[in-house]
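Hi everyone,

Forwarding the result from last night's run.
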Amino acid sequence: MIFSKKLIIGENVKSFDEIIEHLESGRKIILGFYLVVLADNQNILEIIPTHEVNKDRYKDREFNVIGIAESKKEAFLTVRDVIAAFVSKGNDFNYIKTYLRNYYF
């Protein structure tokens, strides 16, 4: 799992410092959702509960995490905001996945 250098932390996430500490020490984040770009998937972004990433269906997959949200609703709103910001700058929507990889990693 690779975390973006420009990681988006949802505004409802209670302890930004604690999350950064967990990430730097390699500990798992138990509650919340990751916003990820999966290298082997056609989807632009996926919202995955943090407790799911170690399950078989995600095993051996490359995760590029661009954000962490406290709730599923916050995760959806964050994805909406990321895509809206991209499109509002006049960018071609067909290149959003490339943009996400280049901008966040």
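The two ends are 12 Å apart (CA to CA).

Cheers,
N.
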